[in-house]
Amino acid sequence: MAELPSCETLLLNLEGGVLHVTLNRPDSRNAMSLAMVHELRAVLAAASAQSDVRALVLRGAGGHFCAGGDIKDMASARARGGDAYRELNRTFGSMLEEFQRAPMVVIAALEGAVLGGGFGLACISDIAIADAGCKFGLPETTLGILPAQIAPFVVKRVGLTQARRLALTAARFDGVEALRLGLVHYCEASDSALEQRLTEVIEQVRKCAPQANALTKALVLTSEDEEMGSLLDRAAEQFAAAVTGPEGVEGTMAFMQKRAPNWAQ
Predict the structure, then answer these.
(1) What is the architecture of the domain spanning 10-206?
(2) What stretch(es) of the chain map to CATH 3.90.226.10?
(3) Which of the residues 39, 51, 186, 212 could staple to 129 if both were Cys, CB 3.0 to 4.6 A apart?
């Protein structure tokens, strides 16, 4: 079993099959540094290798989720030229891709600033829970730059029409509007309500078989791009394998015996 890496920009807590990952740069409202990106990728790789990690919860320390990219990293890249900027930007995009494909359920608990890179992280979560007072936005164009790696994930999350508006106006909006847009799944009015909702969601995830969840997530994601016939052919093969596999046998027996399956106990 792979061990979780030690981190300087993240706080990690693995409990009951749930890995809590807290962005921990509160002095900068958890701005996304290159070091944080590398640590997030390393943590995700290690967690993905552990079959007992059922869910990963992303949140921020100090009352904010993430206020975007670290300006210091961009200043450092300026001294090294265009290639450094390209590498910095693409590395963040690679992290978003990896979280999008993660086998476990990714849950985002959003508070305070959810801007730029933090907005991107919210868009790759499977389940997002926001505080009503969150401040969402894509401020990149007000700085004369592009939400280059974030924009495709925003389009997939809220649709082309809304993504165009948000990216081209840098509009700020709260958790209530994020819920209306479909960016988040829940909007809570207080810290205690957010924590209660997070607990409920984790309990729901624990009722689902881990491998079945991983395969279902991959199936749902590929349904956007793959030709329908080949997608359904492959899904039928996966279904047959699941029914006769360990989780399918256990789930069926548990249903017949009117008990919870072993992964939900």
Answers:
(1) Alpha-Beta Complex (3.90)
(2) 10-206
(3) 186
The pLDDT of 144-166, averaged and rounded, is 97
Q: Are 50 and 3 in contact (CB under 8 A)?
A: no
Identify whether the C-beta of residue 178 lies closer than 8 Å to the C-beta of residue 130: yes
8 A C-beta contact, residue 66 and residue 58: no
According to CATH, what is the number of the domain 210-264?
1.10.12.10
pLDDT the model gives residue 1: 46
Dihedral Cα 97, 99, 101, 105, nearest 10 deg: -160
For the full predicted model, state whether its pTM sits above 0.85.
yes
Chain region(s) in the chain for CATH 1.10.12.10: 210-264
**Selection from 136, 131, 133, 135 nearest residue 195 by Cα:** 131
Beta-strand relationship, 18-23 and 10-15: antiparallel
pLDDT in tens, 1-35: 468 999 999 999 999 999 999 999 999 999 999 99
